[in-house]
Amino acid sequence: MKEGSNVSRIFFVVDGLIKEYMESRDKNIIIKLSKSKDFIGLTSLYGEDTYCFTATAMKDTLLCSIDPADIKSLMTQCCVFSREVAKWYCENYNAMLCKCLNLGLRQLNGKLANVLLYLNSDEFKEFDIFSSISRKDLAELSGMSLESVVRVLAEFDHDQIIELKGKKIYIKDLERLKRINQNG
């Protein structure tokens, strides 16, 4: 799915990992990592007729392609489905509000600590995310430059908050990382 293209399908992630990002001339911002049981493009159901972001698979992914009219019909006919979609949407909206806070009000250490905690959460355990995520992805998730991400990771490594082994990141001191996140 490409930002600006016409909405023809809504996607449901059956299995896999997708990064959803907004593109700009100089830099992209990853707005969300979608995994199993996530919808992609649902925000276009009653709004814009073009996708407002690009989605790219980060790992082998299985998607279910759904006609938007079928989702609208299901939402009208099935209260349980409507409730689940509303719940999913509210959870994602709250996550976006937190992302806005992280991008706008935190210092660099707090931004990166927030992203590392997000990636360390239970929802990404099955993906061994720290083995496959690039430094560029970390920059795009945190709203930081690549150079700043590399520098802050080196500081966290030096302070023994994390351990860097090649591309892989190991969190060594979760409590300190949480304090950095809280202090912003």
Describe the structure.
This protein has seven helices and eight strands; from the N terminus they run E-E-E-E-E-E-H-H-H-H-H-H-E-E-H. It is an alpha+beta fold and 184 residues long. It has two domains: 10-103, Jelly Rolls (Sandwich), CATH 2.60.120.10; 107-183, Winged helix-like DNA-binding domain superfamily/Winged helix DNA-binding domain (Arc Repressor Mutant, subunit A), CATH 1.10.10. A three-stranded antiparallel sheet has the order 4-1-6. It has a three-stranded antiparallel sheet with strand order 3-2-5, covered by helices on one side. A two-stranded antiparallel sheet has the order 7-8. Helix 3 (108-120) crosses helix 7 (174-183) and helix 5 (135-142) crosses helix 6 (146-158). The longest helix has 27 residues, at 79-105. The two termini are 34 Å apart.
